[in-house]
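Subject: Predicted fold for Intermembrane phospholipid transport system binding protein MlaB, 98 residues

User T.R. writes:
Posting the sequence so we have a shared reference for the thread.
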Amino acid sequence: MSTNLKWEVKGKHLHLKGELTYETLRPLWLERDKIIKSIEHINVFELTRVDTGGLALLIHLQQFTFINKPPIYFSGITRQLYALITLYKLQKIINYIP
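User M.O. replies:
I've generated the structure tokens; pasting them so everyone works from the same file.
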């Protein structure tokens, strides 16, 4: 059983809460084009779990902005998420504020 993913856009900030996994990311994936237009920052601190599918979506959101506007940066990266980023050697790809 998985916890739902919730998100809230406040100005140019996207706040993610819950689990960002292969099983929960579909609603955010379907809304990504609308959401990505207005954000510059994604806060991931309240994510309780991220799997490789969730990490792939975060990278996709960031890479999409390279084409269309200044890049998105992330904040609130937990030890667990950073471990996943490190496992795939993505430290130089993910823009984040420590």
